[in-house]
Amino acid sequence: LIEVFREIGHRAEMAVVTGGLGPTEDDLCSEAAAEAAGVSLEEDPAALMSVEAFFSTRHRPLTAANKKQAFLPTGAKCLPNPVGTAPGFQMMIGKCQFFFLPGVPFEMKKMLADQVLPVAFERRGPSKMFSPDRTLSVFGLTESVTNERLHGLTDRFPDIKLGMRAKFPEIQVKLYARGPEKPVLEETLKQATLWVTERLGNHVFSSSGETLSEVIGVFLRRNSETLALAESCTGGLMAHLLTSVAGSSDYFLLSAVTYANRAKMDVLGVDPGIIREHGAVHVQTAREMAACVRRIAEATYGLATSGVAGPGGGTPEKPVGTICIGLATETDSEGFQFHFSYGDRGMNKQMFAAKAFDLLRRRLGGIDPT
Amino acid sequence: LIEVFREIGHRAEMAVVTGGLGPTEDDLCSEAAAEAAGVSLEEDPAALMSVEAFFSTRHRPLTAANKKQAFLPTGAKCLPNPVGTAPGFQMMIGKCQFFFLPGVPFEMKKMLADQVLPVAFERRGPSKMFSPDRTLSVFGLTESVTNERLHGLTDRFPDIKLGMRAKFPEIQVKLYARGPEKPVLEETLKQATLWVTERLGNHVFSSSGETLSEVIGVFLRRNSETLALAESCTGGLMAHLLTSVAGSSDYFLLSAVTYANRAKMDVLGVDPGIIREHGAVHVQTAREMAACVRRIAEATYGLATSGVAGPGGGTPEKPVGTICIGLATETDSEGFQFHFSYGDRGMNKQMFAAKAFDLLRRRLGGIDPT
Fold first, then answer.
1. B252-258/B301-307 β-pairing
2. Cα B75 to Cα B90: distance, rounded to the nearest angstrom
3. Do the chains contact at B347 and A24, CB–CB below 8 Å?
4. What is the mean pLDDT of residues A139-157?
């Protein structure tokens, strides 16, 4: 750590270090920073206050280990941590301004936004440059097909930089603009977004960074409609994703995670004859599950999954990766079957859930289901 | 990138670089590596074969963008990627052996294990040293209290190195040993594990890296028992965590994610009088939900959650962070209420689910519930 801090101190003007500020014996960042700068550690009144405040508002005793967190390199400026125990600090090592932040992601993000980025922007000085960007979220195309379809973007829009990121199971296409005139950039971004959307078609489900479950929520809320789920192979993941959106109780009524066949019949009321004839993993079963849960919950839509997430349970006709999806409305119900070959239970569950959400998203948007 | 590669090439003997090998225009690692080493890019037959093999087994067309991935710095050795499109490669830059791997985590991990670590071990030469370790998973103690309780470990066991990692909502205590005699190290680790377990008590739920849902699964399977869930505020997360364990269909029967009060009554059969009298977030309601879902699914145990995950929905009596948990068996049912103050919907859901699992885990292990 000491050598890396020194090396960066020679090379860079600003650096952010995360983690290693905790109360435990293997948290050594403050010591290493002091050593790299050639100073010692001393108790910092502001840091002590930050630590004490955290513990007193939570009515928890302040331990000796936590008190250690109030020791900072001499000359360092404390960066109080309003949401955790470890305060951060900023100091010079070599010619570089270092910011040391805790490693817990939500503490780090808050302190970065509130205490580091403003300093960085101020240091950069009043800039005449703007850097707007746009994120298009894509489902159902591979990264390379997406890239192929966007070939020519940078010829057509020389001021736009293209980025792409696989955020399984979706792909994010990022468009970055940079220049001195904000309205011009915004117009260019708008044109480029249209150009991209034309080429990727209905695979683009958001141009503002929303997840599939957020997009579904926006549709349902707008139409005052409601949704119920019957999940077998997705095992509660769809419900979890939907309920991760604040306010989802306005449109999400119920998920029956019927893992056992018996539960499919007893809780959902699926006709035992359908399961006997087709098995649990079948488009007819998924249709029936969707129709049943919609009726039970008195929801506008019923969405159901039944498939084989693996690693066991596959058959020659229904190998691991097979997913059947049912979608029911008041007037009809449809069944779909797909196969994915990720060979990983977790990835299969993610993809199954996203595929079901995408079918519903297309239905809600009045576009072709596939 | 070029400068960083050169700098590392001066300083280090081995380096692993992940990401930037994809087919898109912002994947620039091969170019940068070639430039840093002062060579050019040329088509590599082994890399081309790796890319072609991936596409042909998936019956997908090979695009020009993917063909780009077969261009490696002159003199580099291709590291075939059996599970993705981007092959990796190894090459010298300065005095350092670089390994370039794709950034997709599961591809990177497989290639690191199969193609990088063996080279690293061979390079290190026949070692007479062993490095066994042990991971103890802890729930219900803060990181600093855990650390405080383990004070003195390194005095008592000088050969053991202690690591601690907050893996929300649990804490992992890691014990590392290193030395020439394996049986001695194993015995020391065993003694240290006992020492730690004595100090942390029943908060330790695993000493082999299992999750809470895996531990519950082991108990249920061993006793041929089954579990049903009724989830309100956890919104399907508990079912998702349980069904992320392969083979969970042997003991997990049903989760009724009854987000709407109406679903609590209609699907679970919760007495409307209880909800009217106490509200949805109450120990009595949670008890009733657990008892109802256990009966419906004919399960050995029923576990239920009802609470306020936030950001909305809090009241002075039941503020955001309140969680009521019900646990029902054939002969009785219990209700618990707790309050957490993370102020974040996602963290609250995680903590609520873990707290409910921990109550069940203690019950299954015949130990005190809190």
1. unpaired
2. 9
3. no
4. 89
Residue B88 neighbours by CB under 8 Å, 6+ apart? B21, B78, B79, B81, B99, B100, B101, B102, B111, B115
Would the CB atoms of B267 and A256 count as touching at under 8 Å?
A: yes
Annotate A219-279 with three-state secondary structure.
HHHHCCCCEEEEECCCCCHHHHHHHCCCCHHHCEEEEEEECCHHHHHHCCCCCHHHHHHHC
- Shortest CA distance to B360 belongs to which of B350, B370, B351? B370
User: Which chain B residues are closer than 8 Å to A345 by Cβ?
Assistant: 244, 246
| Interface predicted TM-score (ipTM) | 0.83
Asked whether the predicted pLDDT for residue A325 surpasses 90, the reply is: yes
Query: Residue B334 has what pLDDT?
Result: 96
Beta pairing class for A71-73 and A252-258: unpaired
For residues A130 and A134, what is the distance between their CA atoms, to the nearest angstrom? 13
**Distance separating alpha carbons of residues A288 and A300, to the nearest angstrom:** 15
| Structure tokens given for A46 | 């502001």
Angle between helical axes of B212-222 and B345-364 (0-180°, round to 10):
30
pLDDT in tens, B169-201: 999 999 999 989 999 999 999 999 999 999 999
What pLDDT does residue A220 have? 98
Q: Is the pLDDT of residue B132 over 90?
A: yes
Residue in A with minimal Cα distance to B264: A254
